[in-house]
Amino acid sequence: xxxxIGVALRRGNAAAEVxxxxxRLEYRGYDSAGMSVKTDGGTVTVKRGGRVANLKDSxxxxxGNVATGHTRWATHGEPSDKNxxxxxxxxxxxxxxxxxxxxxxxxxxRLKGGAEFVSDTDSEVIVRLLNKDYSxxxxxxxxxxxxxxxxxYALGILCEDFDGIIAVKYxxxxxxxFGEKGxxxxxxxxxxxxxxxxxxxxxxxxxxxxxxxxxxxxxxxxQPANRVxxxxxxxxxxxxRGDYPHYMLKEIHETERTVRDTCDAFFRNVDVxxxxxxxxxxxxxxxxxxxxxxxxxxVAKRFFSDRCGVFCxxxxxxxxxxxxxxxxxxxxxxxxxxxxxxxxxxEAVSSLKEAGAHVVAVxxxxxxxxxxxxxxxxxxxxxxxxxVAATKSYIGQLAALYLISNLTSDIFAARKKLLEVGGKVxxxxxxxxxxxxxxxxxxxxxxxxxLGRGADYAVAVEASxxxxxxxxxxxxxxxxxxxxxxxxxxxxxxxxxxIIICDESLAEKCENAVSxxxxxxxxxxxxxxxxxxxxxxxxxxxxxxxxxCSAQLSPFVSAVAxxxxxxxxxxxxxxxxxxPRNLAKSVTxx
Length: 590
Ligand code: M6R
Prior knowledge:
Layout: E1 3-9, H1 14-25, E2 32-39, E3 42-49, H2 56-60, E4 66-72, E5 87-89, E6 92-100, H3 103-112, H4 124-133, H5 138-147, E7 151-159, E8 165-170, E9 175-179, E10 182-186, E11 196-200, E12 207-210, E13 215-218, E14 229-231, H6 247-252, H7 255-269, H8 272-281, E15 285-289, H9 291-308, E16 312-316, H10 317-320, E17 332-337, H11 343-354, E18 358-363, H12 369-373, E19 376-379, H13 392-405, H14 411-430, H15 433-443, E20 447-452, H16 455-471, E21 474-479, E22 495-501, H17 507-518, E23 523-528, H18 531-537, E24 542-545, H19 554-572
Helix pairs in contact: 3-4, 4-5, 7-13, 7-14, 9-13, 9-16, 13-14, 14-19, 15-19, 16-19
Bound molecules: 5-amino-5-deoxy-1-O-phosphono-D-mannitol.
């Protein structure tokens, strides 16, 4: 949701570093891109609407030792050249990730003060305020400006009078990276330059003065602040997409490895004793997240109900703050988030923590905002997930949640089952011919309905999200039993219903759904792990028989099958599955 980057180099060309960083950060927004570079002749800014590649030629001609850059996901003002960042005024250039909620009032004030605005963005007020507040002391101007802002912001500020960058953080993510070539700031750790070997994460309200030699951290009152520097190896994240045509396909193929690494990290890095106490003593468990992370909660709810014998509920994080939930000092909240930066999730669980709940983050990103809120973190070890559509991280979340749900029973047996089911995913991905057949049907349909019962219903909801976000075909995930209560009215020869049947005890009832759709001339596809179902339905539907596994763990396999269907549908329609229109990877605004 907008990416910012900046580098101050002791050696090398900062413009080239920032351009490469923008390519890595593009998953955060691809409405426009821009950069400002401190050159011998002063600060030069270039920006273009559309993808980062549109900036390539202009960036190639720039050189300097300090630069900032931005990839935009538009919130205020349409995607265009003029609304692209950096925003420039007087001696300043700024890049911003976040939302300035009181921008109208501030803009009005600056207009009255004689400023002329050239964009429709909320961000431009920041650069206009800086100009007003600056009289030689850069940090003081930064502090005065941000005191006026309401909302969220990670900022990279250049000033003609300073051979470095000022970074500011409030609610939006930014990290500062240190390495042999100099110092960098970036929205996400995986997009940092390869030479970065350590990071500091500023706290909300911090202002950081960055030069090629050092970074000084201050709190909002400009008092020096001590922030822990932690070693990392940025190179491990920048692995590209290899021979795969898209990140999505590459990342789906990393599922088995994700399950394995998530299991290993659970036993190596988690405070299992404390976590077991939380689970054992929980009077209720609340699973929460947004989008795919929420959908992982829908599957995991069944793990907890089965294993822990405790009341368990799943809540959409963006709604949780408005829902009447009962919290006690024993309530356990499992906050699920790939990025760990989703504003709705972070805000929701912060308020549950304040109300007394134990908060456990289940996340793919260490050092992220959610880990700072949580009492404990359970890592999902998917590695960098670049494709906007979450795939391997969803399965990694399921693996982590399955382990947590088994803490009070036989955790080692649970681990063994997970490794086995990871292997089934590997087996599935060796033969995806049926995915082509079902994808073809999807691509030729006006709407696609995913139906299932029990855990298969939870998978149906995720399958629907995956298909709609990357193919732009209308779809819905629905309980198979609810079909006759309304959705059946939408079924005709142009719609496809994909029915997931992996639980033998529910199979016959799901087969009814197949008949109900087929008798209304709707097209039907079936994803099943059950040989008998595949055999029975082969003449009525396009059937994909996936590897057999227990009903409880079948989502690990069926969801991957449906990710492949979504991927192949999107590609056949000429969509870019890695960067679907209007979306961005990490949603850091509420
Ligand atoms: O980083 P998070 O897991 O918190 O992100 C939550 C959702 O924004 C995310 O899962 C989104 O729905 C994906 N685009 C789904 O593929």
